[in-house]
Design a protein that fits this description.
Elements (H helix, E strand, L loop, with lengths): L12 E3 L20 E3 L20 E3 L20 E3 L12 H5 L2 H6 L1
Parallel strand pairs: 1-2, 2-3, 3-4
């Protein structure tokens, strides 16, 4: 990811999907006006803690990556209204994998 992105502090939407990205720098937290972050269809195995300080984040799409666990700091994202973690390796206790893979609406309906 080009380091210039961390200086785009007025950015509200960032779509990095379909780029074979393996990691996102912590400095993504500098984008304090970010409301929509799409990093789907990449090669992410971890999420940077910098995302935890994005207080205006409403939509986070991390689907179709290589995530096996979800960071506990996700609970700090109080503005988050849409969260898609489908098609990862994450196991959520109590939910069948096919429900998780169908996305957030299926999880809520389950």
């Amino acid at each position: 990811i080009n380091p210039v992105i961390e200086h785009l502090v007025n950015l509200e939407q960032l779509d990095l999907s379909h780029n074979k990205i393996e990691f996102i720098p912590d400095k993504i937290g500098n984008l304090n006006k970010l409301e929509n972050l799409n990093v789907s269809h990449n090669e992410l195995a971890n999420l940077p803690e910098g995302i935890s300080i994005l207080k205006n984040l409403i939509k986070l799409n991390i689907s179709h990556n290589r995530l096996e666990t979800l960071p506990t700091w996700l609970v700090l994202l109080k503005s988050l209204k849409y969260f898609d973690v489908s098609h990862n390796r994450v196991k959520i206790k109590g939910f069948p994998q096919e429900v998780i893979d169908r996305g957030p609406d299926s999880i809520l309906a389950y």
